[in-house]
Design goal:
- The chain has five helices and four strands, in the order H-E-H-E-E-H-E-H-H.
- By secondary structure, it is an alpha+beta fold.
- Strands 2-3-1-4 form a four-stranded antiparallel sheet, covered by helices on one side.
- The longest helix is centred in the middle third of the chain and has 18 residues.
- The chain is elongated and about 70 Å long.
- It starts with a helix and ends with a helix.
């Protein structure tokens, strides 16, 4: 009986946590954007294997895809895939630069900047207001 109560509590907590973000929005918490430049055909071959075989299973997103040798690539990497991607890059002799440490933090900061608010006047434009509130403003 105690395990049933614990399971119910866990499901309730999971449901409450799921309500923190609107449905349909992706969460990129902890995702990193790596930048690197392959300088040899051997590096390109290893990166093609990473792209062709592992993009979908690891949830990778190539922001700037593989082109030619000496052309920069940008890759979004979820936290769970970072170890695998780092291993492939290290094995290829590629040292990436972390362009974005936490993609969700950047998105949240941009959304906060874009949110039209005028709270100093007591009227928050990011909230719904009915006609009487708008007229009173």
């Amino acid at each position: 009986m105690a395990w049933q109560a614990a399971l119910a509590l866990a499901l309730l907590c999971a449901g409450i946590h799921a309500l923190e973000k609107p449905v349909g929005y992706a969460d990129f918490t902890g995702d990193k954007v790596l930048r690197f430049t392959p300088t040899t055909q051997e590096q390109m071959a290893k990166l093609r294997v990473l792209r062709d075989r592992w993009t979908v299973p690891l949830g990778l997103d190539w922001w700037r895809d593989l082109g030619l040798v000496n052309h920069t690539c940008d890759l979004r990497v979820p936290p769970a895939a970072l170890g695998n991607v780092s291993h492939v890059l290290r094995d290829a002799g590629i040292v990436p630069i972390v362009m974005i440490e936490d993609l969700q933090a950047v998105i949240d900061a941009q959304l906060k900047e874009l949110r039209p608010t005028n709270e100093s006047a007591g009227f928050d434009l990011s909230q719904y207001h009915d006609l009487s509130e708008i007229s009173a403003y």
